[in-house]
Design a protein that fits this description.
Shape: globular
Number of strands: 4
Strand content: 5-15%
Radius of gyration: 15 Å
Structural class: alpha/beta
Helix content: 25-40%
Low-confidence stretches: none
Largest sheet: 4 strands, parallel
Number of helices: 5
Length: 109
């Protein structure tokens, strides 16, 4: 905890990657100095049921209520993009926006 707080005091933003799969601990989420919650693509990509949409929406709302931003991983379709646009603090990554590139290709973008 002390190390995370020292990093934040130096202006470094802290993110939790792949949230929603594996060992995500909801009861500890509010105790750590976290700036960004990255929602794993296993949750964000299959917007095929109302239940799945509710789970992802709840994660986004939870993060926002704790003052965090969210990065939604795995956005590959216009439908996914449109669904996530309703959230103000949302950032997204995935093939819908661009394919992965090597650092040398970034200046050309």
């Amino acid at each position: 905890m002390n190390n995370l707080q020292k990093l934040r005091s130096r202006g470094i933003r802290i993110a939790i990657d792949d949230f929603g799969v594996g060992y995500a601990s909801f009861h500890l989420l509010h105790k750590f100095p976290i700036d960004i919650l990255k929602i794993d693509r296993q949750l964000s990509r299959p917007l095929t049921s109302p239940a799945n949409k509710k789970i992802v929406s709840a994660l986004l709302e939870l993060a926002y209520s704790l003052g965090m931003h969210c990065i939604v991983e795995g956005i590959e379709t216009a439908e996914q993009h449109a669904f996530y646009q309703q959230y103000d603090n949302y950032w997204g990554q995935g093939y819908y926006y661009h394919r992965p590139v090597v650092p040398d290709e970034l200046p050309a973008l």
